[in-house]
Specification:
- Strands 12, 13, 15, 16, 18, 19, 21, 23, 25, 28, 30, 32 and 33 form a 13-stranded mixed sheet that branches. Strands 14, 17, 20, 22, 24, 26, 27, 29 and 31 form a nine-stranded parallel sheet that branches. A seven-stranded mixed sheet has the order 5-4-1-6-10-7-11, sandwiched between helices.
- It is of the alpha/beta class and 443 residues long.
- The protein starts with 14 loop residues before the first strand and ends in a 17-residue tail after the last strand.
- Helix 1 crosses helix 4.
- The protein is elongated.
- It contains eight helices and 33 strands.
- It has two domains: 221 residues, Spore Coat Polysaccharide Biosynthesis Protein SpsA, Chain A (Alpha-Beta Complex); 186 residues, UDP N-Acetylglucosamine Acyltransferase, domain 1, CATH 2.160.10.10.
- The protein binds uridine-diphosphate-N-acetylglucosamine (UD1) and calcium ion (CA).
- The site of calcium ion has 4 residues, from loops.
Length: 443
């Protein structure tokens, strides 16, 4: 049977989102604001924006504080910005967003910017449950074997959430509670803003804790609902660089799982590194020690590695072989081409069924600018060739072993050799076997 919470969040016009991102992130020990620290080259807050985009929530407000210009610069048009001048706590941060929500009668999804692993599916289920239960607040919780550092969820005898207690204020008995606050909540806007100003800073950190809203709601007998996510990884809060290492591991696992589910064989996931924004076609096989960086597209039935690096802005077509100690960057490689050993391909456009010999280098940089190498279909690049860009190697052309082609063009069907490369001969056109002439049968 379908669970009630499997229902879609639905039309999001009645939902706004507030992201709390004003904190400095002292525990990161960094000049960079915490939410701009990256995992797989994407800032923590970038992951939150992506999840909200998937949810189709249009009205997004981010509370910035520490180095707010830098954070606002990253957010661009994706979010309205409000500034929290003094970091007085999460409740105070949320109050800064109130003026941007004047007259808003819907619900507010509130989340901290430092939980990059949160999935849009989970937020969707939280929203659906919140709508269904008609609660004033629905909090996303999780049960952790090690709940250290998180606010703990306190429930009454009827299992209703009545309070959240922060680690620093918790008694020994409260500290053993394993159900924690993820820092993600849905609120009825009206109830939230009516009670937010009642929160006091009477706690260990002398901050206005948003978590205190739960006790206030409970005392006012406003209904509080909760949704527990079983995926304990997704609520990981990033507070230190060790947490960043943990997040990196989890994202890495997610990316590899997506690639494998897409029909790709990864022989050794332990030594395979694939960034965000990589597409890989069905039945491609990735041997050990391969690194594929962001913005790379790879076709079907390719064989990649071992010991290979594919760098950004590269498109590899179907049935291409890229072997050991090969690096490819900002290039396209068309179908059936083989680049098997010790080769650097940069700023190149390589055609179909080209063979690139061992030790070939496209010398794309002259100390001032990068130049393009073009290699047309069926060309044969001899071992140790150096192609000094800008250079074009024609169809069916051959470069001899160890030759250096210095700028310009090698015409179609031409063999060049030497340093600098000179034309050795034109290739003879292959004789077409006439259909009327039968090959002689062997005796
Ligand atoms: C918070 C919750 C805790 C929860 C945990 C989940 C409170 C009081 N505690 O604790 O119950 O288990 O998240 O990860 O809410 N921020 C501001 N302005 C401020 C203070 C913080 O915008 O004045 C922002 C921070 O940038 C951060 C978020 O709020 O993105 C949470 O702050 P943080 O200090 O990390 O709270 P935690 O101690 O992790
Ligand atoms: Ca945190």
């Amino acid at each position: 049977m379908k669970k009630k919470t499997d229902v879609k969040g639905g039309d999001m016009k009645d939902f706004a989102c507030v992201i709390l991102a004003a904190g400095e992130g002292t525990r990161m020990n960094s000049q960079t604001p915490k939410v701009l620290h990256t995992v797989y080259k994407k800032p923590l807050i970038g992951y939150i924006l992506k999840a909200l985009e998937e949810l189709k929530i249009k009205k997004v407000i981010t509370v910035c504080g520490y180095k707010s210009k830098q954070v606002a610069g990253y957010l661009g048009k994706k979010s309205l910005i409000v500034e929290q001048k003094r970091r007085l706590g999460t409740a105070d941060a949320l109050r800064q967003a109130e003026k941007k929500l004047a007259g808003f009668k819907g619900h507010i999804l509130t989340l901290c910017a430092d939980i990059p692993l949160i999935r849009s599916q989970t937020l969707n289920r939280l929203i659906a449950l919140h709508r269904g239960s008609k609660a004033s607040c629905t909090v996303l919780t999780s049960v952790l074997k090690n709940p250290t550092g998180y606010g703990r969820i306190l429930r009454d005898d009827n299992n209703k959430v009545v309070k959240i207690i922060e680690e620093k204020d918790a008694s020994l008995y409260e500290k053993v509670i394993e159900e924690i606050n993820s820092g993600v909540y849905c609120f009825k806007a009206k109830d939230l803003f009516a009670s937010l100003k009642e929160i006091k800073a009477d706690n260990a950190k002398k901050e206005y804790y948003l978590t205190d809203i739960i006790e206030i709601f409970a005392k006012k007998e406003l209904s509080i609902s909760s949704f527990e996510t079983e995926d304990t990884e997704e609520i990981l809060g990033i507070n230190s660089r060790f947490d960043l290492v943990e997040a990196h591991k989890i994202i890495r696992k997610r990316i590899l799982a997506r690639v494998i589910e897409g029909g790709v064989t990864i022989v050794d996931p332990e030594t395979t590194h694939i960034d965000n924004n990589v597409e890989i076609g069905q039945d491609t096989v990735i041997e050990p020690f391969v690194r594929i960086e962001e913005d790379v597209k790879i076709g079907k039935k390719c064989r990649l590695g071992p010991f290979l690096r594919i760098r950004p802005h590269t498109v590899i077509a179907d049935e291409v072989k890229l072997g050991n100690f090969v690096e490819v960057v900002r290039s396209t490689v068309d179908s059936g081409t083989k680049i098997n050993h010790h080769t650097y391909i940069g700023d190149s456009r390589i055609g179909k069924k080209v063979n690139v010999g061992a030790g070939t280098i496209t010398a794309n940089y002259n100390g001032r600018e990068k130049n393009t190498t073009i290699i047309k279909d069926n060309a044969f690049i001899g071992s140790g060739s150096i192609l000094v860009a800008p250079v074009k190697i024609g169809k069916n052309a051959v470069t001899g072993a160890n030759c250096t082609v210095v700028k310009g063009e090698v015409k179609d069907d031409t063999v060049v050799v030497g340093v600098p490369a000179k034309v050795l001969r034109k290739k003879k056109k292959q004789k077409q076997v006439s259909k009327s002439v039968k090959p002689r049968s062997r005796k």
